[in-house]
Write a structure and sequence with these properties.
The complex is a heterodimer of chains A (248) and B (372). Chain A is an alpha/beta fold and 248 residues long. Chain A is built from 10 helices and 10 strands. The two termini of chain A are 37 Å apart. The chains are: A alpha/beta (248), B mainly alpha (372). Chains A and B meet through α2, α3 and α4 of A and α9 and α10 of B.
């Protein structure tokens, strides 16, 4: 089944079953370099599971996942991260007992083994990079604050900053604007636009306005399968999509 | 806010200096050799508590088997000293002269192969460091790579300490059994039982301990220390920052175990014997209590906890021997409920801020912090 591709990310025949229930069923999904892909679908369609599969959190039952034409199935999470895949979680996932600076510093893609971390040297280059990122995520004045004292929106921004400094080639975002106020949403959309420059992005989102504003291509998942794929207009006009998702 | 971070770092250094003055100057000047030797013994437990700060307080790995590593270090040292004490001249009344007395009592007629290398002090010192770290590595690797953690890890380490006790007691001919390895006399011909030797060994122990605190501080203030906190906080997220969590856990568990073993070796030197009663479940849990009471996120606090509790144990059990265990259990529960960050947390979170706000009148109360 698996073939060589020019795609950045290629999922072919991916199936995962939990006790016989097929959360993802014979899924094919291809992401181009520089593409922004939005995945939508009703609850339980397998959207988050797809992200979990790509980043190594869930093992697939069969099929193949290739990143830059190399098989990444079976690799550990940190190896997949090192190959250039970053993931933002649905709830803000940051290190609350560390300061903003330390959160960003840990995400800097260097010194990731035990020895490298033990003899880590906070060079001017790293400090400058952390400050630059902090500036982008509106947290430049809060570098020494413990992350747990940040507001919900600031935590989301910090996590986005942690991904920025990690600089992945493929970025996966799970409902990045869920649970945000209108003003936070606007600022976050701005941030995400910075984040998605020069890289491929997969976004899961329910907010159709937000999807319309950013999407290049949309994939609709339903019961673990691709129901439809195409640009926003085609998708919105698709009667099957209307029936299972957009209609309600 | 950067003030508080700086403040916390300087508290650490002040606490370290206070501890150094206390154990290097105050105690040697004020207590007799017998008591000083007792303090030295307590300090050997604080090596274990230091290790627990690293792996439990910072990384969230609760090990209930640190007595095993303490014991391994202690036994390695004891084997060397025992061989030196069992020269042919010293043991000529035995049926096989030149082997440790307990082997002779168990009808063993030749020194077992694994005892042979302990004729060498260099090998012994290497063994004190390597044997526990290899065991910790094997155990840690097997468990952390499979992502076994939390309470399961605690239970397995506790089982390990039970297994080790049974093994030592059961293999009496090779280990000295329940009595342990006793009647240790000289280190390279230097009698370790005299008062002057005890004082010197006390200072050696203090120096190694202070060095270990600095080592722990180096680890905790490096980026690795922050990764450990991140692992305790959100282990899953750390993987997605690109770190192999298991390697970091294995590393810190090995370091904690090696520290415990060094403590065990210092124990044998100062107390003059080693027995399975320092290996089992009870001593392993006691060491966790020392750490919790002192403050599991403070290196100096953990040392203070070990000192204070053992000092309390000595004083208290002289008058009410049967009540001591209840008192210690009660203390542990009280600390966990009321002061989860232990004595150190009490000082840095409660006492010092109040002193600052409450004016200088109460300032002298800072000084007796580590151990009165």
């Amino acid at each position: 089944m698996s073939s060589s591709t020019d795609f950045l990310l290629a999922l072919e025949g991916v199936t995962v079953s939990f006790d016989g229930f097929k959360a993802v069923n014979d899924l094919n999904l291809y992401i181009d370099k520089g593409e922004l892909r939005v995945i939508i679908g009703p609850n339980g369609a397998g959207k988050t599971t797809v992200l979990d599969l790509i980043c190594g959190r869930t093992m697939l039952s069969s099929g193949s996942i290739k990143f830059k034409d190399q098989e990444i199935t079976g690799l550990k999470e940190h190896d997949i991260v090192k190959r250039g895949i970053g993931r933002k979680f649905q709830t803000p996932s940051i290190y609350e007992d560390l300061t903003v600076f330390e959160n960003l510093e840990i995400s800097f893609p260097r010194g990731r083994d035990v020895v490298g971390a033990l003899f880590w040297n906070r060079t001017p280059e790293i400090i400058a990079r952390v400050r630059e990122i902090a500036e982008t995520i509106f947290l430049a004045d809060h570098l020494d604050r413990l992350a747990e004292t940040l507001s919900h929106g600031q935590k989301q921004w910090l996590e986005i900053g942690m991904l920025l400094i990690q600089d992945p080639e493929l970025l996966m975002l799970d409902e990045p604007v869920a649970g945000m106020s209108v003003s936070e949403r606007i600022k976050t959309a701005e941030l995400l636009n910075t984040l998605i420059r020069n890289r491929s992005v997969v976004v899961i989102e329910h907010d159709m306005k937000f999807v319309e504003s950013i999407a290049h291509r949309v994939t609709v998942l339903h019961q673990g399968k691709v129901l439809a794929e195409g640009d926003m207009e085609t998708i919105q006009a698709n009667p099957k999509v209307k029936e299972v998702y957009l209609g309600h | 806010m950067s003030n508080s971070l700086f403040g916390k770092r300087s508290y650490d250094l002040i606490a370290f200096a206070l501890l150094a003055v206390l154990i290097l100057v105050v105690l040697p000047l004020t207590v007799d050799v017998f008591r000083l030797n007792l303090v030295g013994k307590y300090l050997t437990y604080s090596f274990v508590a230091l290790g627990l700060v690293l792996c439990w307080g910072y990384t969230g790995i609760l090990s209930l088997g640190q007595g095993v590593f303490f014991g391994l270090g202690g036994y390695c040292m004891a084997m060397f000293l025992k061989l030196e004490a069992s020269s042919v001249a010293n043991t000529k009344i035995q049926s096989t002269p030149g082997i440790p007395d307990f082997m002779d009592w168990n009808q063993i007629t030749a020194l077992p192969f694994f005892w042979q290398p302990f004729h060498s002090l260099i090998f012994t010192i290497l063994a004190i460091i390597l044997v526990p770290s290899i065991l910790a590595f094997v155990l840690g690797f097997a468990m952390f790579k499979r992502r076994v953690g939390g309470v399961y890890f605690a239970i397995i380490t506790q089982a390990l300490s039970a297994v080790m006790t049974i093994l030592i007691i059961g293999q009496q001919g090779y280990t000295g059994g329940v009595n342990g390895i006793t009647d240790l006399r000289t280190l390279l011909g230097w009698d370790i039982r005299t008062d002057s030797a005890k004082v010197i060994l006390y200072f050696v122990c203090c120096a190694v301990l202070l060095g270990s605190i600095l080592l722990g501080r180096f680890v905790l203030t490096s980026k690795l220390g922050r990764i450990l906190v991140a692992i305790r906080d959100k282990e899953d997220r750390v993987r997605f920052s690109g770190y192999d969590v298991a390697n970091f856990k294995v590393f810190i568990f090995c370091l904690a175990s090696t520290l415990a073993a060094v403590g065990g070796a210092m124990f044998t030197l100062q107390v003059g014997f080693m027995s399975p009663s320092f290996v089992g479940i009870v001593p392993s849990i006691e060491m966790v209590i020392f750490c919790a009471v002192g403050g599991r996120q403070s290196l100096v606090g953990a040392v203070a906890g070990a000192l204070l509790i053992n000092w309390g144990k000595t004083v208290f059990s002289e008058s009410f021997p049967e009540l001591w265990l209840f008192a210690m259990g009660g203390l542990f529960i009280a600390v966990v409920l009321a002061f989860p960050r232990g004595l150190a947390g009490l000082v840095t979170d409660q006492l010092l801020p109040r002193l600052r706000n409450g004016g200088s009148g109460r300032a002298p109360r800072i000084s007796p912090a580590p151990a009165e």
